[in-house]
Each structure stands twice: as C-alpha cells, then as structure tokens.
Design a protein that fits this description.
The complex is a heterodimer of chains A (about 120) and B (about 160). Chain A is an alpha/beta fold. Chain A has helices at about 10-20, 35-45, 60-70, 85-95, 110-115; strands spanning about 5, 30, 50, 80, 100-105. In chain A, about 45% of the residues lie in helices and about 20% in strands. In chain A, strands 2-1-3-4-5 form a five-stranded parallel sheet, sandwiched between helices. In chain B, strands 1, 2, 3, 4, 5, 6, 7 and 8 form an eight-stranded antiparallel sheet that branches. Classes of the chains: A alpha/beta (about 120), B alpha+beta (about 160).
C-alpha cells in the first residue's frame, strides 16, 4: 500500500515511518506541509494519507478540503494525525471529509487499529 | 494562579512521555517562577493565544534532551542537532495540544513550536503574566515545564 505521510515535523514523519515499517508498510512518501501534500496526492496514486493539522503554508484541514474538492482524489482515505484533540476540531475534520482521526500522543497500536479499520 | 490552568499541562506532560517516550515522569511540586529563573540547554516553546495568553515551555539539560529524544524517535542521538531541536519542538507541540483539549472551554490557540538551544540559557516570559514551573524527574533525567498563562478579556 502506498502511503503519504504529511507533517512539518521531521521527527513525527520519522516516528510514523518507523511505526508503519514495523507494521509491514514500506512504500511511504513524505510531504512537509499541506500544499506539498495536495500536489503529491494529485500526482501519485496514494491509498492512504496520514495528515497533520497545524503546518505552515497550508494547514492539514485546508489540504484535506482541497483533496476532497478534486474528483481525482476525492476518495483517497485521509487520516488526520494531530494534537488538535478537542471534539469541535475532530467534528470539523470529519465534516471536511477526514476518514479517521488520531490524536497525538499515540501509540503504535492506535495506528495499527486505525489501519485495520480501513481494511488495510 | 488557578490550578485548573496548570494541571492540564502537568497531565499532558505525563501522558505524552508515558505514551511516546517510554517513561512515566514524576512531577514535583509546582512553584511560582521567581527571577532569576532556572537556566537550561534546550527549550521548546509554544505560544498561547485566544481565550488565554502566554506560553508553555519545556526545558532540558543537554544530556536529558539527548536521552529523551533518543527514546522519542527510536534512534540514538549523541549531539544536539536539527533532529533534536525538531523533536523537542514536537514534544512541546504535543503537550500543548493535549493540554488545550482540557482547556477547551477557553478556546485557546497554540502556535507552531520554537526551540532555543544554548548552554545555560534563560527563557524570559512577560512580567505581567504569572509563570508556574513544574519540575519532572524521569528515567532520562530531570526537566521542567513552565506554564505562563493568563486569561484574556474574552473570558
């Protein structure tokens, strides 16, 4: 499965890449902000996007809306992975089309469960 | 200083370290910061705005920063470089984000993280906003979380 990791923190990308690798997912690309993510999702055939929320240039929520607004990418699963843990923010992401939501801090088991819920 | 403004940061620090750094830090007794404050080697800073103003700052001695970040990213680090500063900024971001959820009635916004590196540096906070220092001890060493927070006019 081809996965795009989106986070402005190199640390979080590294942690998630290591976690995904441990789960057997090795085809992983990275994007450093929302604009980078939108461009890569439009250009690639990603089966899953793990999206941070607070990033410079374009936020994860804005990127999610852009992905959902494009007929070519509207169905790409997007899991928000963020420290935005208030219910109102989670609802906002779901209403914008988030497939699922992971709140930082999280354990590898949480990521495993969210992937399993997607049938991955 | 109201305890309900400080406790979310204490809880968030314990939760973040327990979940992502593989150690359960033990908090010491919080105290009001008095100048001159403590000195540190690596500090991650998140600004607070909206319903509350101020900052939350997590500060480490270099050795504790290195062992903490090594556990956080799953790779040993031996010097304070870009990887370490990025990781400390992310730890500050996660702690502030988790605390923000406990302060949800206040509509607090958090900034992107900034990180200060320098032997024995001090982080100055606004004199008109009280600061509380929460000392922590964990298997990686001692560190502190400073919470400088005041409600704004809108609350």
């Amino acid at each position: 499965m081809k996965i795009l990791l989106v986070d402005d923190s190199n640390t979080m990308r590294r942690i998630q890449r290591n976690t995904l690798s441990g789960l057997g997912f090795t085809e992983v690309d990275e994007a450093e902000d929302g604009a980078d993510a939108v461009a890569k999702v439009q250009a690639g055939n990603y089966e899953l996007v793990l999206m941070d929320w607070n990033m410079p240039n374009m936020t994860g929520l804005e990127a999610l809306k852009a992905i959902r607004a494009n007929p070519k990418t509207v169905a790409v699963p997007v899991i928000m992975v963020t420290s935005e843990s208030e219910k109102s923010r989670i609802l906002e992401a779901v209403q914008a089309g988030a497939t699922n939501y992971i709140v930082k801090p999280f354990t590898p088991d949480v990521l495993r469960e969210k992937l399993a819920a997607l049938g991955k | 200083m109201r305890a309900e403004l400080i406790n979310p940061f204490l809880k968030a620090t314990v939760s973040t370290f327990s979940t992502m750094v593989n150690t359960a830090p033990t908090p010491g007794k919080p105290y009001v910061k008095v100048e001159p404050g403590l000195t540190h080697d690596v500090s991650g800073i998140i600004g607070l705005s909206g319903g509350a103003k101020g900052a939350v700052i997590i500060s480490f001695p270099s050795e504790t920063a290195l062992t903490t970040v090594s556990a956080f990213i799953g790779t040993p680090v031996t010097k304070v470089d870009a990887d370490v500063t990025d990781a400390v900024g992310e730890l500050a971001n996660i702690i502030a984000g988790a605390a923000k959820a406990d302060l949800s009635g206040l509509n607090v916004n958090i900034s992107l993280p900034s990180v200060v590196v320098g032997t024995n540096h001090k982080v100055n906070t606004p004199k008109d906003i009280p600061s509380v220092v929460i000392p922590f001890a964990c298997t990686h060493g001692d560190f502190v979380v400073e919470v400088c927070i005041a409600l704004t006019e809108q609350k």
